[in-house]
Amino acid sequence: MGAFKINIKPFGERAIIITWPDRVEEAILEDIIDFKEHLINTAFPKGEWELVAAYNSLTVINNLNNVELDKYEDLLIGAYQSKKGSQPATRWLWKLPVCYDLSFGIDLEEVAGRLQMSVKEVVHMHTRQPYLVYGIGFLPGFMYLGGLPKSLEVPRKPTPRLDVQKGSVGLAAKQTGIYPQESPGGWNIIGNCPVPVFNVSKDPPCFISVGDRVQFYEISKAEYDLHQIEAEVGIYRIEKKEWHD
């Protein structure tokens, strides 16, 4: 039997959405990722099908034909009930450099003051643990990273900026994330990552997946400039290792 109660609904003409209990929980996301992998390995191969996981849902999209719910509902329920013992998806821990220089961390001093910490303490708290990728959205490649220490929780800015620099690392409520491109945004900016996390010319465009983990480490402004050049010419190698709970 599946670990959670799921609901299955049509989602437009070519998709079905499967939802789990409506709460942000690591066990739920892990169950979704494992079910996604099980479906890819059994009845929903890549190419014809695209499976998109996030928070408490899995969207199953057919890239070629319309999808009738009646045809797939029993199949999906049966697959979920029988997935126990299937090979879990491989998950990765990615180490990403961040420069917390105040020229990048334009809200860092304000955040530190609000949290009654020093800037150094904020940086230490932000880099000391991995974050779980719960979803990728509002911009292509924008990762919603959960697991932020409660001591770093700050609300979104009351008035979003019209232009947030590419690579900006921000805080908002219980999450942290990286802006993959210049855009408007209301997160509190505390640093910048010189390594692009989204590149439309690559396959996949975003090398990090939902269910992976990201840990930041601090670099100097000189190291930032070097890594940015290395990334531009394609010689920067991102540190990663397989994640085991």
Quick structural gist:
The chain has 245 residues and is of the alpha+beta class.
Task: Describe the model.
The protein is an alpha+beta fold and 245 residues long. The chain has two domains: 7-82, Gyrase A, domain 2 (2-Layer Sandwich), CATH 3.30.1360.40; 92-242, Beta Barrel (Cyclophilin), CATH 2.40.100. 25% of the residues lie in helices and 30% in strands. It has helices at 26-42, 69-82, 108-115, 119-127, 221-233; strands spanning 7-10, 15-19, 49-54, 57-62, 92-99, 131-137, 142-146, 161-164, 168-172, 175-178, 183-185, 188-192, 213-219, 239-242. The strands form three sheets. The chain has an eight-stranded mixed β-sheet with strand order 12-9-10-7-6-13-5-14. The protein is elongated, with a radius of gyration of 19 Å. The model has no long low-confidence stretch (mean pLDDT 92). Its EC number is 3.5.2.9.
